[in-house]
């Protein structure tokens, strides 16, 4: 048993030299264990995130039709997109701290059921004020979902697996774009007039019900931790615990308490880095259908099909970048490089958004950078946070970062309304992304792995 413990340290080489072959054998078994855990958890969490992102961004398709019904301008639409993050930001930290008390299983189920019901209620909005209220309520309902799952995954997997695991989870954004666009486009093209409802009302109804059902399943399917997982043996639970505990050994810079994290400058550098990522997400998630329509595609169904292309390319780029980041154990420069790719896409979008091929190429570059940054970014806070500091700080970083999701749509919407195209907003997004790449690359250069 002592040999097994020695083999499970972070390096895997701390056992006596005479037992090195035995240590290697245990390490292989350990890697197989984490592979089995990933196969058990990731597909379900992936499905949850796909549904989450579809319900968050289907507004970009619905607004193609409901603008006239609600009397919305581009500026008021951008404001409605942005106010979602008011409730999201205010309730994200409390939600993650509550997760530490009641467990991830009940937290994820609560969030999914509430956001599904609020999403369904969007079908009843009749004017801009109701639209804003519903969007704020949706943000409150969803608060804590993404940082909660990030924290949940870091409590299962050691650092060497995290970029790969998080990329598999973040792949949900891409799949939501690949599947959600065509589905939303089909609903808008075919459901108008069903039982006297507009097509955009059917969109919110049909895409709001699945998260309620999946949220209820989460209560049964998800364990709160490895210690409560019935499908792990006592020995396997001990292996997971020792692997995670080993990450804190030998690090003088690790923060274990939320109060200490609040005073640490690296938390706020990370928050700024995440703030800049959300600008790329706003361009991709909330303006892609409009860009595609401006590029000459008129039919909603066709817009939905074309909108899947950037997400598909972005998913491939993200998987390659994440695997390379894990293989090299390097995070900050990977993040910075991917942010610059998104910035280049935003510049291309600004200069040639009215031409079909350059517009799709610009959106694809934005998607590559955005998805890759999102997956790689969350491995950075995990290098210096643990315990309650991890749960609270991940939510704090996400909350501050999501101020970008509040400001970006508002700014881009206002600039688009004033100039009648997305160029100015794209250039502004590119500038913000360059700032984020520079700050993470420079400020985190001495980051301990």
UniProtKB/TrEMBL annotation:
Does the keyword Transmembrane feature in the UniProt annotation? yes
The topology of this chain with respect to the membrane is: Multi-pass membrane protein
Which residue stretches belong to region Disordered? 1-24
Question: GO: which molecular function terms?
Answer: transmembrane transporter activity
Residues annotated as transmembrane? 37-55, 75-95, 107-125, 131-153, 165-188, 200-222, 267-288, 300-321, 333-353, 359-380, 392-418, 424-444
Q: Where in the cell is it found?
A: Membrane
Q: What is this protein called?
A: MFS transporter
Query: To which species is this protein native?
Result: Paraburkholderia hospita
Lineage, highest ranks first: Bacteria, Pseudomonadati, Pseudomonadota, Betaproteobacteria, Burkholderiales
């Amino acid at each position: 048993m002592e040999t097994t413990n020695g083999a499970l340290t972070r390096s895997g080489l701390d056992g006596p030299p005479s037992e090195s072959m035995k240590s290697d054998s245990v390490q292989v078994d350990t890697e197989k264990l984490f592979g089995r855990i990933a196969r058990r958890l990731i597909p379900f969490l992936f499905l949850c995130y796909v549904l989450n992102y579809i319900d968050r961004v289907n507004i970009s398709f619905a607004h193609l039709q409901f603008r006239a019904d609600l009397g919305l301008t581009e500026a008021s639409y951008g404001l409605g997109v942005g106010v979602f993050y008011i409730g999201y930001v205010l309730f994200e930290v409390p939600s993650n701290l509550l997760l530490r008390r009641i467990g991830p299983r009940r937290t994820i189920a609560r969030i999914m059921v509430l956001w599904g019901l609020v999403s369904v209620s969007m079908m009843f909005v009749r004017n801009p004020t109701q639209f804003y209220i519903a969007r704020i309520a949706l943000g409150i309902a969803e608060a804590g979902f993404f940082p909660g799952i990030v924290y949940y995954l870091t409590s299962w997997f050691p650092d060497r697996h995290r970029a790969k695991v998080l990329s598999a989870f973040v792949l949900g954004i891409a799949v939501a774009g690949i599947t959600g666009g065509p589905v939303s486009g089909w609903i808008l093209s075919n459901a108008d007039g069903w039982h006297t409802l507009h097509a955009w009302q059917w969109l919110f109804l049909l895409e709001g019900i699945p998260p309620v059902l999946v949220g209820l399943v989460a209560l049964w399917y998800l364990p709160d931790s490895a210690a409560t997982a019935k499908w792990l043996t006592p020995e396997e639970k001990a292996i997971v615990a020792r692997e995670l505990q080993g990450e804190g050994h030998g690090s003088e810079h690790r923060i274990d308490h939320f109060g200490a994290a609040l005073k640490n400058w690296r938390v706020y550098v990370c928050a700024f880095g995440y703030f800049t990522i959300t600008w790329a997400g706003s361009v991709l998630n909330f303006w892609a259908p409009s860009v595609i329509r401006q590029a000459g595609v008129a039919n909603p169904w066709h817009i939905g099909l074309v909108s899947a292309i950037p997400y598909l390319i972005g998913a491939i780029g993200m998987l390659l970048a994440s695997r390379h980041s894990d293989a090299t154990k390097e995070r900050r420069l990977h993040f910075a490089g991917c942010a610059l790719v998104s910035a280049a896409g935003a510049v291309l979008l600004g200069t040639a958004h009215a031409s079909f091929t350059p517009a799709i190429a610009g959106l694809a570059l934005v998607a590559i950078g955005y998805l890759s940054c999102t997956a790689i970014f969350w491995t950075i806070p995990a290098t210096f946070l643990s315990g309650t500091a991890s749960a609270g700080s991940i939510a704090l970083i996400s909350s501050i970062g999501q101020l970008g999701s509040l400001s970006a749509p508002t700014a881009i919407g206002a600039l688009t309304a004033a100039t009648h195209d997305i160029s100015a907003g794209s250039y502004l997004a590119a500038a913000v992304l360059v700032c984020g790449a520079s700050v993470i690359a420079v400020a985190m250069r001495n980051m301990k792995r």
